[in-house]
Design a protein that fits this description.
The complex is a heterodimer of chains A (219) and B (162). Chain A is an all-alpha fold. Chain A has a single domain, classed as Cytochrome Bc1 Complex, Chain C (Up-down Bundle), CATH 1.20.810.10. Chain A contains 9 helices and no strands. In chain A, helix 3 runs antiparallel to helix 5, helix 5 packs antiparallel against helix 6 and helix 6 runs antiparallel to helix 9. The mean pLDDT of chain A is 92. Chain B is 21% helix and 36% strand. Chain B has 1 helix and 10 strands, in the order αββββββββββ. In chain B, a hairpin with a 4-residue loop joins strand 5 and strand 6. The longest helix of chain B has 34 residues. Chain B is elongated, with a radius of gyration of 28 Å. The relative contact order of chain B is 0.16. The mean pLDDT of chain B is 89. Classes of the chains: A mainly alpha (219), B alpha+beta (162). At the A-B interface, helix 4 and helix 5 of A face helix 1 of B. The structure holds protoporphyrin IX containing FE and FE2/S2 (inorganic) cluster (FES). The site of FE2/S2 (inorganic) cluster (FES) has 11 residues of chain B, from loops. Protoporphyrin IX containing FE (HEM) binds next to helix 3, helix 5, helix 6 and helix 9 of chain A.
C-alpha cells in the first residue's frame, strides 16, 4: 500500500532521484570537521524556527520591546526556553560558522574549482554577524542600546561616507524608534532572506563539485 | 533472536532519539503558542456603586467605574457604567441598567426632560425600564442582574468580564 503511494509520487516528483543526488553522495572518508557546514545549516534553521516563535510576542517598538521580552521570559509558558535557545544559538552559530571557515582554510578546500563556494561562504559569515548585530538591539535594554550606539559609531568612522552610513544604519542621527524598526526588519526579513539565498547557492555548489579530499603529503 | 544489522540498528535508534527530541521541543512549542488562550479566564468582581440613601426613588442614578485589563505587556482600561433605578423604599426593589447601548456600544444618557435614555450615536431612545422605544438597537439595555446591599447600606454590583 505505502509502496504504491510512494511509487505514484516518485513517478511524478522524482523522489528517488532527489534522494540519490542530494543525500546519497560520495563523501571523503568520515571526518568530524566536515560536519560543521551541516551544523551551521541546522543552527540557522533552529534560529529561524525559534525566531519566528519569538515574533509571536515580541514587539519592535521602544514603548513595548523591553516589556514584551519580559513577558516572554516570565509570562508565557516555555518562553524562557524559546528565547534561551535563540539567544545561545545565536552565539553558537557565529562560532560554528567561523570554525567551518577555518576548517575550509586549513584543508585548502577554497582552491579551484571551489573559489565561488568560498566567496559565498564569506557572505554567509558576514550575514550571520549581521544577524547577531541587529538581533542584539532588539531587547532594547541598556546593554543593547549602548552596544548599538557604539557599533554604529564605529561604522560611522569610515572616511568620507561615515556620516551617511551612520545615519542610514540608525535611520537618523540618533538611536530612535526608527533604528529599532529597521534593525528588526533587517533581522527578520532582509538578512534571513539573504542567508537563505546564499545557503541555496552554497549547497548547490557543494553538490555540483562534491566534497574535497583532505590534502595528502603529495599535495 | 535474529541478528539486527548495523544499518537497521542505526535507523531505529535515530528514529527513537529523533522522536524524543521532536517531542521535547514540539510540546513546549505548542504550549508557548496557545498559552494566552489557556490563561484568559473571565475576571469578576463586586463593584461598589454608592450609598442607597443617595439614590432618589424613580430617578435613574448614574454611575461609572473603570476596569484595568493586563494583556501581556500592555494594560487597557475600559470605562463601564450604568444607572440604578429604585422602584420603592424597599432596598431590594431596584434594577441596574448597563449604559452601553445594545446597538454599537455607545454610552446612553438619561434625559430628565423626556424621561428616556438617549443614545447620541444613532438617536436611539430607551424607556426608563430600558425597553427600546425607537432607533436601531436590537434589544433592551442589558442589566447587571446580581447586586447586594452591604451592612453600611451601600449598593454593590457583580461584574463579570466578557
Ligand atoms: C532567521 C530567522 C530569525 C528570526 C525570525 C529571528 C528573530 C529574532 C527576534 C524576534 C529576536 C528578539 C527577541 C530576543 O531578543 O530574544 C531576536 C533576537 C536575537 N537574534 Fe534572532 N532571529 C533569526 C535568526 C538569527 C540568527 C541566524 C542569529 C545569529 C547569529 C540571530 C541572533 C540574534 C541575537 C543575538 C538576538 C538577541 C538575543 C537577546 O539578547 O536576547 N538571530 N531574533
Ligand atoms: S450605538 Fe446607540 S444607537 Fe447606535
Amino acid at each position: 500500500m505505502w509502496k504504491k503511494v510512494f511509487d505514484w509520487l516518485d513517478e511524478r516528483l522524482g523522489l528517488n532521484d532527489i534522494y540519490k543526488n542530494l543525500l546519497d553522495r560520495p563523501e571523503p572518508k568520515g571526518n568530524w570537521w566536515n560536519t560543521l557546514g551541516s551544523a551551521s545549516l541546522f543552527l540557522f534553521i533552529l534560529q529561524g524556527v525559534t525566531g519566528i516563535f519569538l515574533t509571536v510576542y515580541y514587539t519592535p517598538s521602544p514603548d513595548h520591546a523591553y516589556d514584551s521580552i519580559q513577558y516572554i521570559m516570565e509570562g508565557v509558558a516555555y518562553g524562557w526556553l524559546i528565547r534561551g535557545i535563540h539567544h545561545w544559538g545565536a552565539s553558537l552559530m557565529v562560532i560554528i560558522v567561523f570554525i567551518h571557515l577555518l576548517r575550509v582554510f586549513v584543508t585548502a578546500s577554497y582552491k579551484y574549482p571551489r573559489e565561488m563556494t568560498w566567496l559565498i561562504g564569506v557572505g554567509l559569515l558576514l550575514a550571520t554577524l549581521g544577524m547577531g548585530f541587529t538581533g542584539y538591539l532588539l531587547p532594547w535594554n541598556q546593554r543593547a542600546y549602548w552596544a548599538t550606539t557604539v557599533g554604529t559609531q564605529i561604522a560611522g568612522a569610515v572616511p568620507f561616507m561615515g556620516d551617511f552610513i551612520l545615519k542610514a544604519l540608525r535611520g537618523g542621527p540618533d538611536l530612535s524608534a526608527l533604528t529599532l524598526q529597521r534593525f528588526f526588519a533587517a533581522h527578520i526579513w532582509i538578512l534571513p532572506a539573504a542567508l537563505t539565498g546564499l545557503v541555496g547557492v552554497h549547497l548547490y555548489l557543494i553538490i555540483k563539485h562534491g566534497e574535497s579530499h583532505f590534502p595528502t603529503r603529495e599535495d | 533472536m535474529s541478528e539486527v544489522s548495523r544499518r537497521d540498528f542505526i535507523k531505529v535508534t535515530t528514529g527513537i532519539v529523533g522522536g524524543i527530541i521532536g517531542a521535547a521541543i514540539g510540546l513546549p512549542a505548542v504550549y508557548y503558542l496557545i498559552d494566552p488562550a489557556l490563561r484568559a479566564g473571565a475576571k469578576e468582581a463586586w463593584i461598589p456603586i454608592g450609598k442607597l440613601e443617595n439614590m432618589e426613588i424613580g430617578k435613574p442614578y448614574p454611575f461609572s467605574f473603570t476596569r484595568v485589563q493586563v494583556n501581556g505587556w500592555e494594560r487597557t482600561s475600559t470605562s463601564r457604567g450604568g444607572f440604578v433605578v429604585r422602584n420603592s423604599e424597599d432596598p431590594d426593589d431596584l434594577f441596574v441598567l448597563n449604559s452601553t447601548c445594545t446597538h454599537l456600544a455607545c454610552t446612553v444618557n438619561w434625559s430628565e426632560n423626556d424621561q428616556v435614555f438617549l443614545c447620541p450615536c444613532h438617536d436611539a431612545k430607551f424607556s426608563p425600564q430600558g425597553e427600546v422605544l425607537s432607533g436601531p438597537p436590537p434589544r433592551p439595555l442589558d442589566r447587571f442582574t446580581e447586586f447586594r446591599i452591604t451592612d453600611e447600606g451601600a449598593l454593590e454590583i457583580f461584574y463579570k468580564e466578557g
